[in-house]
Design goal:
This protein is mainly α and 219 residues long. The chain folds into 2 domains: 3-102, no CATH class; 159-217, no CATH class. 67% of the residues lie in helices and 0% in strands. The chain has 8 helices and no strands. The longest helix is centred in the C-terminal third of the chain and has 30 residues, at 188-217. The chain is globular and about 50 Å long.
Length: 219
């Protein structure tokens, strides 16, 4: 999946629950936040010093995972948007580093967590974030996904499988369909059945995509 695909999933969750509306970052300094970020950076340095005596890769990954978000928070506190964006990219990079290092099936886990988050319902008196999960909440089965992956029943790097005749779909549309399929099943057998179930959706998406392409080219 592309980073933009993940971002669109998060955007969908924000819009559903009316949280974190898109906006320009404020640039006024926040000293209290800066002090907290400084404390987090010191913790990352403690991990860095400790990891020099360790061979376990968790020490290195933990140091990086704490250091980069702390630098992001420091940039937010300073009101420096350029540094914040750079730190956000670094944070994503080191998080993916942990995924690569420990061989985790991120695509399937993200789809599972996203579907779980979309089942949450925000209370009207819950400001800023979704704390109360609501009656419709479904907990993510990340354990099941990891177990299936370790057993060889889930391929983290499985290539996109687009049914015959669907190659005209845009990449984002293909990824959307694949995420739907992954969310439905973890096994190859039922995955094929799920692909058949979403085939009509893909036909509709292909028709829309062709119409948009025709309008863009004046055909």
């Amino acid at each position: 999946m592309s980073v933009e695909f993940y971002a669109n999933c998060v955007r969908q969750f924000h819009q559903k629950n009316s949280v974190s509306p898109t906006q320009r970052m404020a640039i006024n300094p926040l000293p209290e936040m800066g002090a907290i970020a400084g404390a987090a950076l010191e913790l990352s340095r403690r991990l860095e010093r400790a990891m020099e005596k360790q061979e376990d890769m968790r020490w290195l990954r933990a140091h990086l995972i704490l250091e980069e978000p702390a630098e992001l928070v420091m940039a937010l506190a300073q009101g420096d948007e350029t540094k914040a964006l750079d730190a956000a990219a670094d944070t994503l990079y080191v998080l993916l580093g942990a995924v690569v290092t420990f061989d985790w099936p991120l695509d399937a886990a993200f789809a599972e967590v996203h579907n779980s988050n979309m089942s949450k319902t925000r209370r009207s008196d819950d400001p800023g974030r979704v704390r109360d999960k609501g009656l419709s909440y479904r907990a993510p089965d990340v354990e099941g996904i990891l177990r299936a992956y370790r057993a060889g029943k889930l391929n983290r790097r499985r290539p996109m499988t687009v049914p015959e005749g669907m190659s005209a779909l845009g990449r984002e549309d293909q990824e959307l369909v694949q995420a739907l399929v992954d969310a439905l099943t973890h096994s190859p057998e039922t995955r094929r059945a799920a692909q058949e179930a979403v085939r009509p959706i893909m036909h509709s998406m292909e028709d829309v995509w062709k119409q948009q392409r025709g309008q863009a080219t004046g055909q």
